[in-house]
Amino acid sequence: MGESSGGRKPTLIELNPNGGFVIGIDLGGTNIKLVLVDLDGKIVKKLKGPTINSSSKNKILDRLRELIHSVIDESDADRDLILGMGIGVSGVTDESGRVSFAPALGWEDMPVRDLLREEFKIPVAVENDVNAAALGEKLFGVGKTVKNFVFVAIGTGVGAGIIINGELYKGFANAAGEVGYLVMGDEYLKDYRKGFGCFESLISGPAIAARAANQMCSYDSASMGIAFCQDKNITAKDVFEAAKRKDKIALKIVEEVSKYLAIGLGNISILLNPEMIVLGGGISKQEDILLKPLREMIVKITPIPPKIVISSLGDDTGVIGAAAIAWNLVKHTSLIS
Amino acid sequence: MGESSGGRKPTLIELNPNGGFVIGIDLGGTNIKLVLVDLDGKIVKKLKGPTINSSSKNKILDRLRELIHSVIDESDADRDLILGMGIGVSGVTDESGRVSFAPALGWEDMPVRDLLREEFKIPVAVENDVNAAALGEKLFGVGKTVKNFVFVAIGTGVGAGIIINGELYKGFANAAGEVGYLVMGDEYLKDYRKGFGCFESLISGPAIAARAANQMCSYDSASMGIAFCQDKNITAKDVFEAAKRKDKIALKIVEEVSKYLAIGLGNISILLNPEMIVLGGGISKQEDILLKPLREMIVKITPIPPKIVISSLGDDTGVIGAAAIAWNLVKHTSLIS
Fold it and tell me: How many H helices and E strands in chain B?
C-alpha cells in the first residue's frame, strides 16, 4: 500500500486508489458540472453543460442522464470501475435520496436517487450542495486532517456544512447549517417576515451589490459610484474591486460586510468551538481585502478563535463535494456488504 | 434482564441497576452537593455542605475529600459497589481530568481526577458543570430518547452543553457551548472589550436584576419599582414576580429578555437543527411568563424550530449530571477492560 496510499493514515480497511472511480455532479439551476474522480479526489474527466431551463422537471432529469452517459463515455473508464455517483443539489434533500425542495430546479419531492440507481445500477448519494462541499473539504481539501470544522459558502446564498468527529452532521431534520437565517440583532427582529436582517440579507453577493447600488446612486460626489450607478449592473465583485481602488463607499460597504461576517462566523465559533472555518463561494476570492479585518475581529469576539481558511478546491468545490459523498457511500456500502 | 432494565432499550452490554452506584458531585463556589446514584439515576443518598471559602485551594480539596467519605459512610453502601465518581465544576476542565481554570474556587490547573482517584481507588470523571448537566439530561432527564439536543443553563451565568448523536460534543478545545459569549448585534461590537452586549450580559440573572435596578430607580411613578429601589436588593426572581403582578417596568424587562432569548436560542437552532432545547438554571422556573412568548418567536425565526423544554431534573441537575459523567466513564471503562 505504502506509496499508493498518498500520505493518508493507514486504516484497517482501505480501498485501492487505482481500483475505481466515482462520478461527482454539481446540479445547479444554470449549469450541470460533472467529474470522474479517483479515491484521492483527483479529477480524471470533467464535463459541463447547461441545465435545460424548462417548466418540465423531467427535462432536467433527461439532461442529467444524458450528461452522465457522456462523462462515462468520454472518460474511457471501464464501466465496472465506476463504483458510485454523488449529486449535490442547492436545496433540501432527505435520507431516502429524494430532493424535497429545490426551487432553482423547480423540483419538489423528486426521487433522484432511486431513478438514477435504477438506470446506472450503481450506488447514488444525493445531498445538499453545501453539505457535500463540507465533506469534500474533509476528504480532499483543507479539512483533511481536521476532526471538527465548519464549511461556510457565501455567494448568491449563504449556507454551512458541519463536520463533527470527521463526519457530516445534518441535524434533526437535515436542516443543520442553514446559517443564512441567523438573526444578526434585535432591531432586525421586527422585519423577520421579510427575511431582512438575517445573515444572508447582509453578506450574500446580491446583498452586497444591492447595498452598493443603493448607496452609490444616492451619493453625488463619488465618480466611481456614479459610473456604477449609470448602468445599475453592480455586482459584489465590482464592489470589492472598487474598494481595492480605495473608493470610499465601497470601502465602507466592505467594512460592514467584514463586521457582519465576524459576528456570524464568531457566533458559529462560540457555539461549536471548531478547529477551523473553511470559506467557500464567491466571497472566498476576496482574501486580502476581507479576511484580514475578519480574522482580527474574530479573535476579539471568541474565547478560542478557529483558523479561518479559504477552500483549496476553488471552483471545483461543488463537484469534488459531490464525489466525496459518493466515496463516503461506497465506503459504507463496502463495509456493510 | 426484562423487568430490571426499566424500559430501556436492550443492548448487547447492560449493567445491572442494582449492581452498583456512582457518586455525583456538584462543586460550586458556595456549596458542595453530593449524591449516591444507581444506574437508573435514582438518588439513594444526598449530602450538602458549604465549600470552605479560603485562600488555600487545598482547603477546598480537603473539604471535598471529607464530604465524599461522609456520603459513602452515611449511605451504608458497600464500598465495593461504588464504581465511580463524577465531578461537575463551574470552569474549564481538560481531557486529563484537570480543572484548568475555575475562578469561583480559585483553582488553576488542579489535577482533581488524579488526586481523588489515588485516594478513593475508583474511576473519576471531571467535567464542566453545564456539559455534565447536558449528559445528565441525556441519561436520566428529558433528553433520554433524543439523539441531538442542546442544554442551555441560564442563571448567574449562561452556558450550553451540546449532545450530538447521543454523546457530549465538546469542540476542539473543550470550549463548545460557551454561548454566554454570543454576540447579539452589531451595535454591541463596539463594547466587546467590556463584555457588554453578549448573550450573558443581556439574559443572565444578574443582568436582569441590574436592568431592573437601573430602570426602577429612575422611574418615578411605579410604586412597585420604588419599593424595590429603596432596598436595592432586586433579584431576577423579583422582576419575574413583579411582571406576574403586571408591573409595567418588569413586564417590559421580561419582554426584552424573551426577545434576546429567542435570538440566542433561535441562532443555536438555526446552526444545529437540534430536536430539542432543554432549559435549566434559575430562568427555567419562569415557564409561564417567559416560555410562551419565547416559543412563539422561535417559530418565526427558525426554519425548523426545536421543542423548547424545561429540565426535568430541577435543582438536582448539577449532581445528576455529575453522576451521569461518572456512569459514562464506568460504562466505557468496563467495555475496554
Answer: 11, 13
